[in-house]
Write a structure and sequence with these properties.
Elements (H helix, E strand, L loop, with lengths): L8 E6 L9 H14 L4 E7 L7 E4 L2 E7 L8 H25 L4 E5 L1 H5 L8 E4 L17 H5 L4 H10 L2 E2 L2 E2 L2 H4 L2 H20 L2 E4 L2 H9 L7 E3 L22 E6 L8 H10 L4 E6 L5 H11 L3 E4 L7 H5 L4 E4 L9 H8 L4 E4 L4 H4 L7 E3 L4 H13 L1 H16 L3 H19 L5
Helix pairs in contact: 1-16, 9-14, 12-15
């Protein structure tokens, strides 16, 4: 087969797709589709329908088919029950229908829920592993869960984990979850099914070595895993560095969910003891919002809570701030916000955990602090505020790091992975 003469026809499967988004995974899917289309790859994205959006759409050189059925509120109990019941079956049904309409060289699944709907087919299948949900039934691996990082998730380890977990996904771990054996069985069974589906894939893509190591721990052969960073589009750089110091307060930015495992309470504790003028802006959503509003009022913090912002507005928000903080307690698989901030010329402070450990070099293109360490976070914020040379170095090197995630480069790597698997398996369309 002549790789260079072949036009690939690829089917993406993603539960949500911009403008409907639940996190960075949907943006990664969209950007890969866009840049692969520029490499003469025919991409069809199969995703969930949503009121007000067309069933069929052509955008940025690829096709979108919105025919999947799913729940509308993944942060709620009812929404997650609906998703678990109807979404995998919807993926199987609609994928088979599309395969009857046209031949695809590759089926590429994005996200844990999409993988659950993977079908048995002769077409080579890929999965993007962008979530710790593949390695933990609760969807969370925190800095305290060292056993999960080093051992396979047995039923015994799972029971210990769920009894101590503060959250399940983006929901609090209520007593009716924590002490409910039936609930344990349901989510553990789903977890085991996800792992079985991963073993059926011809190729797994993880954005950092952290994900690769977790996949190997779960018994995935190393030669079926590729570490390929997610695409991050370069944001327009700030025209000049904003002066931090006596002239004005340090402007701190947080983008993410209002949940405990994102370390949001650690950041609150840090700004409470910060001894310099500051303004802290939070953009996101989650069940902790009312609690955060209470803390702000009680402690008179100069913190402002906002709703989640559209992806196209993120660059503008970056440029109004001096530093982006990612105080996560959970093992982030990648850390899109960190790279987007770097590409905008904004210094990053992040927890030294999971994928963040691999994408940030401490004191070169960002600052790393121990997860949960509020005093260490204060020290890092003070360094950004006081050390002009450090700020310049972080900005300069951060821009270089961001360039390694540009779309043209990543699309070429993924396209070659498609071709290599097609050659190896001999199952791609001729």
């Amino acid at each position: 087969m002549e790789n260079h003469a072949k036009t690939l026809n690829v089917l993406f499967v993603s539960e949500y797709f911009p403008p409907v988004s639940q996190g960075g995974g949907e943006q990664s899917c969209y950007l890969l589709a866009k840049y692969l289309a520029r490499k003469d790859v025919r991409v069809t994205v199969l995703t969930s329908g949503r009121k007000g959006l067309p069933v069929f759409e052509h955008r940025d050189g690829f096709r979108i088919v919105r025919k999947l059925r799913t729940g509308k509120a993944p942060g709620s109990i009812l929404g997650n029950i609906t998703r678990a019941i109807i979404f995998p079956g919807s993926v199987r049904k609609e994928t088979r229908l599309l395969l009857k309409e046209q031949e695809f060289d590759i089926i590429h699944y994005f996200g844990t829920t999409s993988v659950l709907g993977a079908i048995k087919t002769s077409t080579p299948q890929f999965a993007h592993v962008n979530s710790p949900l593949f390695f933990s039934p609760t969807g969370i691996i925190t800095d305290k869960d060292e056993q999960i990082l080093t051992q396979k998730m047995s039923w015994k380890l799972f029971r210990k984990h769920i009894l101590h977990a503060e959250e399940i996904g983006k929901m609090p771990n209520r007593p009716w979850f924590r002490y409910n054996p039936l609930f344990w069985y349901v989510i553990y069974s789903s977890f085991q099914e996800r792992l079985e589906k991963l073993h059926q894939m011809d190729k797994l893509i993880g954005p950092t070595p952290f994900i690769r190591d977790q996949l190997i721990k779960e018994g995935i052969p190393k030669d079926r895993i590729s570490v390929i960073p997610n695409i991050v589009e370069t944001q327009p750089k700030k025209e000049e560095e904003r002066k931090a110091g006596k002239e004005r307060p340090l402007r701190i930015l947080y983008l993410g969910s209002y949940v405990k495992y994102k370390g949001i309470l650690v950041l609150f504790k840090a700004v409470e003891t910060l001894m310099v003028p500051y303004v802290c802006s939070f953009f996101g959503s989650g069940y902790l919002r009312k609690e955060l509003e209470r803390i702000i009022a009680e402690k008179k913090l100069n913190v402002h809570l906002h709703d989640r912002i559209p992806t196209e507005k993120i660059g503008e928000v970056f440029r109004r701030n001096d530093v982006v903080v990612m105080p996560s307690r959970v093992t982030e698989s990648f850390g899109r916000i960190a790279i987007e901030a770097m590409s905008s010329g904004i210094p990053v402070i992040a927890s030294d955990i999971g994928g963040l450990h691999f994408i940030i070099e401490h004191r070169q293109d960002g600052l790393l602090v121990s997860p949960g360490d509020a005093s260490g976070l204060v020290d890092a914020l003070m360094d950004i505020y006081q050390d002009k040379d450090l700020r310049k170095r972080l900005i300069r090197n951060g821009l270089k790091t961001a360039k390694r995630h540009r779309g043209e480069l990543i699309a070429n790597i993924v396209k070659q992975a498609y071709l290599d698997v097609g050659d190896r398996t001999g199952r791609s369309r001729r």
